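Dear Dr. H.,

I hope your travels went smoothly. While you were away I took the liberty of generating a structure for the chain from your last submission, since the lab meeting agenda had it listed for discussion. I wanted you to have the full record in hand beforehand rather than looking at slides cold. The sequence, exactly as received, is reproduced here:
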Amino acid sequence: MLGVLLVLSAAAAYYMSAYGVVFDRAMITNIVETDPAEAAELLNARMVGWLLFLGIAPLGLLARARVRRHGWRRQILVKATTIGVLICAIAVLVAPSFQSYAALLRNHRELRLSLVPANYLAAAHSYLRTQLSTPDRLEAVTNDAKRALAPEPGAKPTLTVLVIGETARAANFQLNGYSRPTTPRLAAETDLIHFRDVSSCGTSTAVSLPCMFLDVGRSGFSDTLARRRENLLDALQRAGFDVLWRDNNSGCKGICDRAPSEDLTRAVDPALCGSGECYDEVLLTGLQDKLDAFKRDTVIVLHMKGSHGPAYHLRYPPAFERFKPVCRDAQFDRCERQAIVNAYDNTLLYTDYVISRTIELLRRNSNRFTTSLVYVSDHGESLGERGLYLHGVPYALAPAEQTHVPLLMWFSAEAQKRFGVDMACLRHKEGTPASHDNLYHSTLGLLEVQTRVYRPDRDLFRSCRTREWELEARAEQPRRVVLQ
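The corresponding predicted structure, in token form, is as follows:
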């Protein structure tokens, strides 16, 4: 057991030192749910060195230690004496500065997350307890979901695409004022809305992805809810929508368990797939054939690989390597910080291209569908600010780089008219604070789906829809009672 702890502690110490990782339950969830390709990117020669010198080498000393066995009375005496001596030593050391230590530990409880091996052992225990206690019974909270208004006869079906980004931080989006042209294609779109002050639900995919598709928001979210509570896709399907989830990441975290889904991470496409993963353009491969088969109102979710690190240079084709030089090493200490930022910015340039191509696909299908698109990233990323890299820091401690995310919306001219969206009103609201809490309720509001869990105060479109008066009037219209 001590040998296992030595090796695990060496690995934990390496990641804490190299990336500023903090081990809590969310981080253990990330480790368990990540895919092999992402995990392999974190293995490198420096980590092997840490394991050899801090983990393997001490095993030699441990193997030479002789275990002396005594009777239980003597063992209790020895252990009690050892504990007593340690308590006295701590008291002598702490007593002169007790007030300072007490204030430090009271105000900075996160320090416990830096104590190896107590941090990852406590986090693993918390994760296992949560997983084993998850109820099997599904909470049907959207069984009353229905359309506010029946579709007009002869009207085109609606096609709404939700693009869920990965690790894209708002600070590096050209649309958000970044000095580099990381989103040139989207910047040229005239019918695009971009909210500039958007907060994520978490700092990892395992938290943010299920959270944004649930009705409870960040304050009501827990790890177990995604698999035991109905989500946005359930509500849409109950209201009569066709739904499809296409994934090029590490899975839907339970959101698509009851909806049609496709895993494209292992797609066979020589132009887009290689080295154990695929570029995000694979999400559009074969999508036209899917659209040709849809006859009803449809919602499609595209879950991107996006800007997931540390191997940012693997997230985009060579043609998108505009910002140079780039870091090609998962050991960030071997790269200049600007090279890390360059590689990351190239991933955003490619994301811009994929979203733009998706909008072009929607335009080509405007003869059959009324089309719209929403893009939001699951969380941000640290790129060396305050010594932090990657993401996953506990939300209470997380810097803005990990929680400030982009939120974009595109509506065809027909969708603006069909949904009654006032674009001038939405542009006026672009600076309004928003969060992942808004996605669930805004989508229901936009698509005119009524359910008891819908919260109008979280609907970003509600105050900018010219049809809102019609929906409210129809909902408040008294029923006619016929007496016989």
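Two observations you may find useful: DSSP finds 19 helices and 14 strands in the chain. Residues 337-364 form the longest helix (28 residues).

With kind regards,
E. W.
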